Structure formats: structure tokens, C-alpha cells
Amino acid sequence: MFDLPLPVHPTTGPRDFTSPFPSGDADPHLPFALTLSRRAPADLMSGRAAPLVLARFATLAEAMQGAIDHAEGLATDAKPQLLAILDSDERLVLAGAASDHAVAWCHPVTSAAEARGVVTEASHLRAQAGRASAWGEPDLAQRLRHRADLLDGRLVDPLWRAFAVRALQVAA
Asked: How many CB atoms are located within 10 Å of the residue 42 CB?
């Protein structure tokens, strides 16, 4: 989900979202982009499913702090938002769910075998979500899709896996 081969264009946030980051200062040459996943059906059908760039940062640590700052700006009753940090080549560096004034980071997979297992599990969850939708259980389907998206957040690009694990250890 986060490593789509679509271009990531800086945009303004959704209409109901006020970014805590200054939009005029977004330097497109900074290497780390903090993005917000767009999963609304209208965005998917219109081809605008590429993530929204909330801000750009010079370092991964600054991008992680930016994600935390974003989470602190969310309302306490807001549903979790999937955030991803992408590098300048649009590879997934780190992902997490922002809610309750915090970010729950997805721990990166450590091997290709683990990545295959995560993909399989996420696919099963999405299949279950499809069945739940067909049975008239939209809340269950949404929860299952969210769990699958969180699993996808573990699929950090192999180039960044060890670095992301170390960044999470330092942040803890």
C-alpha cells in the first residue's frame, strides 16, 4: 500500500485536515517525506490514491518527530491515520498509525521470508474484509482492512530495514 509506484506530489491536506507544518517551506529536495495514506473510495477510483505529502524533512529523526507532532494535532476521537515516511526515491522507510496524540510505529520485517508471510497475512485479512462487507458488516471490514494496512506498513524497503529498526530502538 505505501510503496505504490505512483509519484508523490506535494499537496495541501484534505479539506477537514489542518496541517501543523508550514506548507510554504516544503523543500522538494529534502530526502524524507511524511505522507498520509489516502484510502477513501473516491480517491482510489479517481486515481488520486497516491499519499498526501504532509511535510519534508532533512533527517529520519526529524520526520519521525514530525509524525509525532502531527499525531498531537489530531482530535482525541479521530480514527487512526496511517502515516508513512518515504525517501526521495519513494521507498518506504517507516510507517505507523497516528492516534491518541501518539504514533504506533510498525516494526519492519527483517527478511524476505518474513515479508512474504506478512503479505500473505495481509491478503487473507483483505479477503476476510471483502467477505465481511458482503455479509453487511462494514465496521468489521474496516477494522480488518486497517489491520492489513498496518501489516503493509511493516514492508519497509530492504535498503532501509536495518536503519529503521535502529531508529526505532533509539527512539524507544
From this structure: 9
Sequence-ordered list of residues with C-beta below 8 angstroms from that of 93, at least 6 positions apart, any chain: 32, 60, 63, 84, 85, 86, 87, 156, 157, 160, 163, 164
Alpha-carbon gap, residue 108 to 141, rounded angstroms: 25
Distances from the Cα of 128 to the Cαs of 3, 12, 106, 133, in angstroms?
23, 34, 22, 9
Cα gap 168→60, rounded to integer Å? 11
> Which own/partner contact pairs does 109-118 have at CB distance under 8 Å and 24+ positions apart?
109/154, 109/155, 109/156, 109/161, 110/161, 110/165, 112/158, 115/154, 115/155, 118/151, 118/152, 118/154, 118/155
The per-residue pLDDT for range 62-115, each reduced to its tens digit, is 999 999 999 998 888 888 889 999 999 999 999 999 988 899 999 999 999 999
3 near 156, Cβ under 8 Å?
Answer: no
Query: What cell does 63 get?
Result: 520526520
Please give the span between the terminal C-alpha atoms of the chain, in angstroms, as a whole number. 26
Integer-rounded Cα radius of gyration of the chain: 16
Is the pTM higher than 0.90? The answer reads no
